[in-house]
Amino acid sequence: MGKLIIDGGARVSGEIRVQGAKNAVLPILAATVMADGESVIKNCPDLRDVDKTDLVLKRLGCGVNRENGIVTVDTRGMCDCRICEDLMREMRSSIIFLGAIISRCRRAVVSMPGGCPIGLRPIDLHLKALREMGVDIQEEHGYIKCTADVLRGSSIHLDFPSVGATENVMLAAVCAEGITTISNAAREPEIVDLGRFLTDMGAKVQGTGTSVITIEGVDRLHGAEHTIMPDRIVAATYLAASAITGGELCLRGVNPADMRAMLHVLKEMGVKLKCESDKIIQTAPERLKSVHTIRTLPYPGFPTDIQSPFMALTTMAKGTSVFVENIFENRFQHVDELTRMGADIKVEGRSAVVRGVKELQGANVVARELRGGAALVIAALAASGTTTISGTEFIDRGYENIEKYLQSCGAKIRRE
Ligand code: UD1
Fold first, then answer.
1. What confidence tier does 34 reach under pLDDT thresholds 50, 70, 90?
2. CA triplet 163, 370, 280: central angle to 5 degrees?
3. 61-100 pLDDT, tens per residue?
4. What phi and psi values does residue 38 have, to the nearest 5 degrees?
5. What are phi and psi of 354, to 5 degrees?
6. Which protein residue has the closest C-alpha to ligand 1 atom 12?
7. Which residue of 30, 158, 177, 204 is surrounded by the most CB atoms within 10 Å?
8. Is the dihedral of CA 127, 189, 308, 254 positive or negative?
9. Per-residue pLDDT reduced to its tens digit, 380-398
10. Positive/negative CA dihedral, 166, 168, 174, 180
């Protein structure tokens, strides 16, 4: 919480070991409720959304122990199948518990989810798929009540490769009767990580990372041990933070193969990259070049989550860059704040045109959602003078100790 205060102009250079992925840890922690016994999840990032997930698990009756990034979940005392409204409102990904709880209890009651205000974010695809698997769903007074005497394996086609819907169906399918196929499934690396954990729990899952996932239902799952994959969005955010200041950065504990679309853009902007299996070394030029057009798309396309941090990067690049946001309808909320800092950005519908300026100036700005907040941090690192960012609770949803990592690389950033 509090405010982040950044004195711009210092080069961000050094080494960062990247945290575990928020978007992988949440569905994996939800999956632990399906185990008979104890699961041990390593490399869990220290984030507010993980605190909330921890609370959901405890309210369901699970024993949870969290120490040094290792979360141990013991499901033997699980006695509830409801998630109350206050927790559902705080975190959109709590909807992922739906598939896992139905799978275990054949009943689940959750309220409509909340989350960052980046768009309408309906859950129709989740509910349609679960209905096809035999779940009776009643939507009453903001609550979703689900019962399933029998969970049937089914052939599910998603109208859009939704990450959350793919995960929910996977969770519901692993202990369903028969075979489930998900076509037009999301291909994000976080889906592959979830598939790995489910397989280690005894599930039969094939095809994750492709558009068709096949799951053969099993009778029961056991607890398992798993290490969460690195956070590719956090990794790209730190690369952007270093690039905008002309710094040199070494990222460790990353998987460059999951980051191709983002690394491709960075190269187009003129940075030099050296990639090894779990390491990226980046050297940035004095001034970055603009990018022709960045279109956000489902994986392996350019991720919507890094659109705003990379927009911050282009504000000071030489030339004009264009962004087209195809995933969420309200993901340009950072534009007004970047404009306050002197950026030249015009938005029309789903497109934003950024004309690079020579200088940004420090200002008082407000983070209105997670990645838009990270964009403001990046801009502030290169701006002249001091920037004060409020709304840091959004940034803390996805970045573990952002100021600590950046300070260790020479940034003048502090929290008050
Ligand atoms: C996940 C990520 C989020 C990322 C997003 C897209 C987590 C915790 N969050 O969110 O960081 O930005 O993927 O990569 O993993 N949609 C529907 N109906 C549905 C479901 C989705 O219309 O039932 C629409 C959404 O409104 C959105 C698009 O599909 O426009 C993509 O959403 P989805 O892939 O489901 O994103 P999330 O799983 O919410």
1. very high
2. 75
3. 999 999 999 999 999 999 889 988 888 877 777 889 999 9
4. -110, 135
5. -110, 120
6. 305
7. 30
8. positive
9. 999 999 999 999 999 999 9
10. negative
First to last CA, the chain: 9
> 181-213: buried (b, 16+ CB within 10 Å) or exposed (e) per residue?
bbebbbbbbbbbbbbbbbeebbbebebbbeeeb
- The pTM assigned to this predicted structure is 0.96
CA distance 117 to 368: 8
Closest CA to 228 of 49, 10, 415: 49
pLDDT, average across residues 306-332: 96
The percent of residues above 90 in pLDDT, for the chain, comes to: 89
Rounded to an integer, the average pLDDT of 197-218 is 98
Between CA 89 and CA 94, with CA 91 as vertex, the angle to 5 degrees is 100
CA dist., res. 216 & res. 198, Å (int): 12
Look-up of token digits 């260790």: 408
Identify the sign of the CA torsion 56, 229, 263, 213: negative
Residue 311 C-alpha to ligand 1 middle, in angstroms? 20
Distance 119 CA to ligand 1 centre (A): 10
Cα separation, 338 vs 375, in Å, equals 8
**Is 116 among the catalytic positions?**
yes
CA 37 from centroid of its chain's CA atoms: 28
Ligand 1: atom nearest CA of 190 is: 15
Largest CA distance in the chain: 64
Give Cα separations from 39 to 35, 53, 66, 82, 184 (angstroms): 8, 15, 12, 21, 30
Structure tokens at 353: 């045109």
Q: What is the pLDDT of residue 140?
A: 84
Structure tokens at 79: 């006695």
Residue where the block lists tokens 């239902």 = 217
Tell whether ligand 1 has an atom less than 6 A from the beta carbon of residue 119: yes
CA separation for the pair 307, 322 (Å, rounded): 11
Query: Given this model, what pLDDT does residue 117 score?
Result: 58
DSSP secondary structure of 294-328: EEB-STTSB-GGGHHHHHHHHTTSBSEEEEE--S-
What confidence tens digit (pLDDT) does each residue in 250-299 have?
A: 999 999 999 999 999 999 999 999 999 999 999 999 999 999 999 999 99
Query: How far is the CA of 363 from the CAs of 2, 309, 376, 378, 379, in angstroms?
Result: 16, 17, 10, 13, 10
pLDDT of residue 160: 97
